[in-house]
Amino acid sequence: MIFGLGALLFALLVYGPSLWVRFVMWRHSKQVEAMPGTGGELARHLVERFALEGVTVERGQPDQDHYNPAEKIVSLSPRVHDGKSLTAVAVAAHEVGHAIQFIRNEPVSHLRQKHLGKAFFIRKIGTGLLLFLSTVALVVKIPHLFALAIGLGIITMLASALMYAAILPEEYDASFNKALPILEEGYVPRQHLPAIRSVLKAAALTYFAGALAEILSLWRWLRFIR
């Protein structure tokens, strides 16, 4: 009973933020007819307004909104690029906020380069250890070795999530020092600003929440072994 409650609490702690992000994005995804333009139109307008030289806006893959600093591309998912929802305009402004950071070479723009590679490396090491130790545990039939594999997997994924946490200042800057002041100028009806703030907070937490949620993928290995 205690173990079951502990497992449920752990699952809520690591997956709860991701659920909240998805809920906020979905809650404010309804089209707002009073919106002056789509997310893509807003992004292109802001690129021109802030003279972000070389930056382009493209209609990207579903659920993949990001700014690519190497290619200077603001890539917006179809729902954001073509949508007139609060989620669409807030996410579009957030991604343009990243473009502003990098074009201006602001200190926060260096966080991604400093920590994201480490996050990928740690995750790769953790996955490799999990595969190796769990395979050995299956062959030699040592349950404690499998438990060690799961423990190491959790530790490395938590470490990876911490690397994403280190990038949060960059994400919050894009949301609340860039996107929000812009949108408050009249780009969205004032009564919608509280919702815009919620979406911008969700946008800032997206990658960190996703990194935490990936920890639950370890349970697939438990089910496989069983």
From TrEMBL:
Keywords: Membrane, Transmembrane, Transmembrane helix. The keyword Transmembrane applies. The chain crosses the membrane at residues 6-25, 121-140, 146-168. Pfam families: Zn_peptidase_2 (PF04298). The keyword Iron does not apply. This is Neutral zinc metallopeptidase. The lineage of its organism: Bacteria, Pseudomonadati, Pseudomonadota, Gammaproteobacteria, Cellvibrionales.
